[in-house]
């Protein structure tokens, strides 16, 4: 999932709880699914940001002298302006882009 091209809002949005529990019939289960997806997105974002910042890092820094690298600052600001992982995950869930399953419900159906 390319989180840079998402249409998720960048600010907090009030949501209708009935929209969240449309697929699961349980708002708590929906929130748990969204939370797990948000953790996945946050890990992806952190890995990508770390890889980009390593390219510009200088290995000669000491405790006394810390150089501010303009490229690192621009990259960090770009990632700060992106929607937060929870907002991206909620938008994906509402657009039915998240695959989820509940093994306990699946075993009940087969019995």
Protein architecture, described:
The protein is mostly helical and 111 residues long. The chain has a domain at 16-57 and 66-97. It contains five helices and no strands. The longest helix has 30 residues, at 27-56. The mean pLDDT is 81.
In short:
This protein is mainly alpha-helical. It has a domain at 16-57 and 66-97.
Estimate the mean pLDDT confidence: 81
Summing up helix and strand content along with how strands pair, one would put the structural category as mainly alpha
Order of H and E elements: HHHHH
Biggest beta sheet attributes: none
What is the tally of helical segments?
5
Assign a percent range to the helix content.
55-70%
Which of globular, elongated, flat, extended, rod-shaped describes the shape?
A: elongated
- DSSP strand content: under 5%
What is the terminal-to-terminal distance? 36 Å
Report the uncertain regions.
none
Q: Using the CA coordinates, give the radius of gyration.
A: 19 Å
Tally of extended strands?
0
Oligomeric nature of the chains? single chain
């Amino acid at each position: 999932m390319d989180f840079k091209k998402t249409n998720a809002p960048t600010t907090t949005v009030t949501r209708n709880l009935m929209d969240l529990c449309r697929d699961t019939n349980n708002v708590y289960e929906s929130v748990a699914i969204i939370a797990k997806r948000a953790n996945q997105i946050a890990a992806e974002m952190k890995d990508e940001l770390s890889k980009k910042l390593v390219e510009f890092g200088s290995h000669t820094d000491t405790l006394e002298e810390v150089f501010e690298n303009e490229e690192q600052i621009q990259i960090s600001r770009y990632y700060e302006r992106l929607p937060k992982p929870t907002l991206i995950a909620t938008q994906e869930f509402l657009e039915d882009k998240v695959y989820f399953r509940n093994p306990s419900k699946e075993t009940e159906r087969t019995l």
